[in-house]
Amino acid sequence: MTDSQLIFGIVQNDERAWRYICREMRPGFASILVQAFVDRISDEDIEDIFQESLIVLMQKVKSGSVVSSREGALFSYLVQIGKLTACNMVRKKTAQNLDDAVTSSLTLHYSSEEDADITVDEKQQMQNEFLDKILDMIPSECRNLLKHFYWNHKPMDEIAGILGMRNADSVKAKKSKCMNKIKELAARIIENDEFAEEVIRNAVERAALRELIDNERNNAGDGYCMAALDVDDDTEE
User: pLDDT tens-digit profile of 137-175?
Assistant: First the structure.
């Protein structure tokens, strides 16, 4: 798939595009990260970094921050996100800053790229993490309904058939209750229930993407983790 097709697929929550990204980009992504952070990150860290980098990529694409300037740019952009994510992970692990030389090198590298604005506001990230936890706390039937509505873009009458509900009005009423449950939990846990529907939709999309990535990892087995060993770093210019 081309970068333009992948960007369009990300905007549309097309799982075929996401599966392509997981299968085709992950080996090269892992190989580059392993070489850039030798002895600083583990195989398990790579999986976490890849997942969180895809989530940031989704957010940036949907905000309009990412355009297809040249073929292969999307992968390069994903690698940039991964390097910054890994850098932050190493900092947290060691509870101290990286060596000045390493930090300076990373800063210079990213500031020289066309698409350098790839960080996520720390306050926004904290809110996202809280909402992700809240989404895990609501009933599974609510998560399924919201996934069909926000991630799969299913109309209400089709969701009714999928979930065995009476009609579209029943789905609307159930969705309203689910949204109120999220706000109730948010008010209880973080003392804030003033979330726009878009914010909740974003949380549902993050959960759906994490589920897709986990499924890809489980279906691929050991080959998913070992493929990185056979990929050369040919993305640096």
Answer: 999 999 999 999 999 999 999 999 999 999 999 999 999
CA distances from 80 to 21, 84, 117, 160, 191 (A): 15, 6, 10, 42, 35
CA distances from 190 to 116, 125, 134, 182, 195 (A): 32, 14, 10, 11, 12
For the range 179-185, what are the long-range contacts, defined as Cβ-Cβ under 8 Å and sequence gap of 24 or more? Answer: 181/138, 181/139, 181/142, 182/131, 182/134, 182/135, 182/138, 185/134, 185/137, 185/138
**How many angstroms from the chain centroid is the CA of residue 105?**
26
Alpha helices by DSSP H, 68-121 = 73-94, 100-111
Domain ranges of the chain: 3-119+218-230, 122-211
Residue 151 per-residue DSSP state:
I
pTM above 0.85, yes or no: no
Q: What is the dihedral of CA 222, 55, 84, 22, to 10 degrees?
A: 30
